[in-house]
Amino acid sequence: MNLADFEFVLPPERIAHHPASPRDSARLLHVTATGLSDRIVRDLPGLLWPGDILVANDTKVIPAQLSARRGDARVGITLDRPLPDGTWHALARNARRLRVGDRLDVEGADGMTAEVRGRDPDGGVSLAFSLDGAAFAEALHRAGALALPPYIDRPAGPTAQDASDYQTVFAAYEGAVAAPTAGLHFTQALLDALAARGVRRTTVTLHVGAGTFLPMRGEDVARHTLHAERGFVSAEAAEAINAAKAAGGRIVAVGTTSLRLLEAAAGDGQIKPFSGTTDIFLRPGHAFRTADLLLTNFHLPRSTLFMLVCAFAGTERMRAAYAHAIAEKYRFYSYGDATLLERA
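User: That's the sequence. What structure does it adopt?
Assistant: Structure tokens below.
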């Protein structure tokens, strides 16, 4: 597979810069083996069956974007994930100018500093901050900003409205750099309607990292690797998913992050409790073992997420679905509309 195999023409005006209001009024393209149907997210209870189980990602977005200074030079930092040694892996603008041992003064954080402890080839650095625990979290919330995707037009930076819009109703555990955006479509009213329909619900946690914003490098898809991300599947969640499946229910993954974590936690046809990191790359040829349906947003051309939906529902089916969505003026990406995909 080459990167060009996942190219399509996406008019820039199809990228959404604000979410639908209310959230569950976003459009929903239902993609099945027999065709396409235009819906809205609020129709979801009628598309699922009693006994199905919804699996959502309950990660909470942190203000991961920091501005720091090394002498007179400004350095932009996007936190990625904490490392076992207590440092943070981060992406840094002008990273090539940084050296191990450099000290960075974090702006707006009342004296918090970071020491560069390591570098990697893709612009990543490991940083040891002078604060930890609750003090670090407090400083981060004071000095940090949301790391909105670069294709969302915010010349002056994220707004106060984004701070609300970019969290899901499931958000519980801080640690994500980017929102699991399929979850943004849910409201409490929709969750109540799904429960009344007999659709079960559980959550897993995958802290989406800064690598989600990076484009693929090179044309050979097989040579690409994803940044590792931290995930957790509790014993209770694994048991609920396995019980629903055993009773004939379908597993409905809310978002590509939930699906990636389920596949990482799958073993012998069962979901196992999981705690660790995963860099699983789901692309055409992958044999899925978990979800039967995937609710996800529309993704960008030449992206690993478009490859994932092609792997799940079939490349030709997804090409037809995306052509239909572009022609019908669906809204793409983080704040955009949604698809409900049946597994090929």
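The mean pLDDT is 93.
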